[in-house]
């Protein structure tokens, strides 16, 4: 359904844009219907830039975002882009910034109606909204007609997911959508994503939090400095991490009943897991990712460039 091929983004930064920042380098991945792919990496690793390229909000410097066989960068004209957004939507980290405090929060629904369903009758539209609110487990009486400041972050985030669902989307880009929510609300929203996946939605789940990735995803892609260092089935990546960066990330996840001193020891013990398999096979460096088990790919250990 979604395929990223050699996706690369270079930003011009510095005085007069004279410097180049390689935010994303040669990223390839796929998201199938009913699949959750976690894109995991530390701050600045390029996750949101990938999400923005998928949503057509930033043009790739090189490579392609292919959705249902079409290169998204070539979607010219209002109608073709509108059709794309009918099927592909994004929900972002900070729900508060997505609402205009001057209007009631459900205005986000009215905007969708004006753009996509101008001929819907009022009763039809109310039924549609009620169905979407039901899916995200919101009570219409508690959220409709309320201003953003009268709703919690979790309620606002669900309203945004409900807005996306009004469109019968097939792919959701969820960019850190639960990092601003408290622990119990997080689980609710994660479980909601699980329900959507069961209905056949593909989800690109962007997070810096490995534990959230494990909870929900089928496939995990670990990103470092814009490059994929390891990818594969989530169980394979978490149970048998190979790249030293993945091993360190896993060792640094805070766990109940483990103090920072123990975490420090685990970090030291994580080590580098032996030498780089790819360099052993292709001396001279610059090798492509190596398949260490079926579908489990590991990049070069020397990803410092
Ligand atoms: N519009 C932009 N212009 C210039 N540089 C940018 C722009 N957007 C992002 N960057 C830079 O690109 C790199 C990747 O940023 P990006 O936001 O994609 O990372 P991220 O992994 O999503 O980080 P975070 O988890 O903190 O949101 C960073 O170094 C960032 O400063």
UniProtKB/TrEMBL annotation:
Signal peptide boundaries: none
SUPFAM superfamilies according to UniProt: P-loop containing nucleoside triphosphate hydrolases (SSF52540)
Keyword field: ATP-binding, Nucleotide-binding, Transport
Domain of life assignment: Bacteria
One GO molecular-function entry: ATP binding
Gene3D superfamilies: P-loop containing nucleotide triphosphate hydrolases
Xref: SMART domains: AAA (SM00382)
Residue ranges annotated for the ABC transporter domain, each copy included: 2-250
Pfam families xref list: ABC_tran, oligo_HPY
Protein name (database record): ABC transporter ATP-binding protein
Species per Swiss-Prot/TrEMBL record: Nocardiopsis sediminis
Lineage start: Bacteria, Bacillati, Actinomycetota, Actinomycetes, Streptosporangiales
């Amino acid at each position: 359904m979604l395929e990223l091929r050699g996706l690369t983004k270079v930003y011009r930064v510095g005085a007069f844009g004279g410097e180049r920042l390689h935010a994303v380098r040669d990223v390839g991945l796929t998201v199938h219907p009913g699949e959750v792919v976690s894109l995991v990496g530390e701050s600045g690793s390029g996750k949101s830039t990938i999400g923005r390229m998928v949503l057509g909000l930033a043009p790739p410097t090189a490579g392609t975002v292919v959705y249902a066989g079409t290169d998204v960068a070539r979607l010219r004209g209002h109608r073709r882009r509108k059709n794309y957004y009918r099927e592909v939507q994004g929900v972002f980290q900070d729900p508060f910034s997505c609402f205009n405090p001057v209007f009631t929060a459900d205005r986000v629904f009215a905007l969708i109606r004006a753009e996509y369903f101008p001929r819907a009758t009022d009763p039809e539209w109310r039924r549609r909204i009620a169905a979407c609110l039901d899916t995200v487990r919101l009570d219409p009486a508690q959220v409709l007609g309320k201003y953003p400041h009268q709703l919690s972050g979790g309620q606002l985030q669900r309203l945004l997911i409900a807005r996306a669902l009004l469109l019968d989307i097939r792919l959701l880009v969820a960019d850190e959508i639960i990092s601003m929510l408290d622990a119990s609300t997080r689980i609710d929203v994660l479980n909601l994503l699980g329900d959507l996946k069961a209905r056949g939605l593909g989800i690109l789940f962007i997070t810096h939090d490995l534990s959230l990735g494990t909870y929900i995803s089928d496939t995990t892609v670990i990103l470092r400095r814009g490059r994929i260092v390891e990818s594969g089935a989530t169980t394979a990546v978490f149970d048998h991490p190979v790249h030293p960066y993945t091993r360190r990330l896993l060792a640094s996840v805070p766990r109940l009943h483990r103090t920072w001193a123990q975490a420090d020891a685990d970090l030291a013990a994580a080590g580098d897991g032996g030498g780089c398999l790819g360099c052993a096979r292709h001396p001279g460096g610059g090798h492509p990712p190596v398949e260490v088990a079926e579908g489990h790919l590991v990049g070069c250990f020397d990803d410092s460039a």
